[in-house]
Amino acid sequence: MNNEEDYKNGQILLIDKPLKWTSFQAVNKLRWAIRKAFGIKKIKVGHAGTLDPLATGLLVICTGKMTKQINTYQGQEKEYTGTFVLGSTTPSYDLETEINERFPTEHITEELIHKATSQFIGEIEQFPPVFSAIKKDGKRLYEFARAGEDVEIKSRKITISEFEITGISLPEVNFKVTCSKGTYIRSLAHDFGKALNSGAYLSVLRRTRIGDFRVEDGMTPEEFIKTLPKK
After folding, report:
1. Same domain for 194 and 218?
2. What helix, strand, coil percent values describe the chain, rounded to 5?
3. 6, 16, 52, 137: which one is catalytic?
4. What is the mean pLDDT of residues 67-79?
5. Which of 14, 33, 58, 225 has its CA 20 to 30 A from that of 170?
6. What is the mean pLDDT of residues 11-30?
7. What gap in Å lies between CA 193 and CA 187, rounded to an integer?
């Protein structure tokens, strides 16, 4: 069991973020629990890479002096699994917003789905979703989106080293992706729909790996809190 000094000197906590939690909530919950367990007034706690509320999986959370390593971990390769739904789109590219357009899917075959993945392997240009926390002119993009304002978004270079279709049960397509920092899997869903001459949005997302850290070695926030001493 780690003690107060361990957390101050710096720990890396692998947390399996529950559905609908924000990454900020997870960090706050752990910070509050560590402070309470050891009677600490102040301790630094931060995460190495946000997960959307509708995603689950690995959050690398650093405490104390290890928060200085956050940028290093943020830059590492990430792996995700999840599900695209073909034949429709949403403004947020996921389930945060309602379906806004429907597209034909009769022409889509399993062969076409597997073939379409090749367009996305390697270094590609990707437009982040307008419903994202990226800042432009001092405001987050989602603030413009929720206000119904148009905003110009610049594309970014990202790298996808692996894009595998793991299951097809139309309209749902399951996948596994290994990618660089800055990749939006929601944007990949949207672009994948276009590549099939249809539409698509992300319905399930789970981060399974960051660098050498794996979600199966992690624990939920509640499980972590149970490891702390009781006051």
Report:
1. no
2. 30, 35, 35
3. 52
4. 95
5. 58
6. 96
7. 10
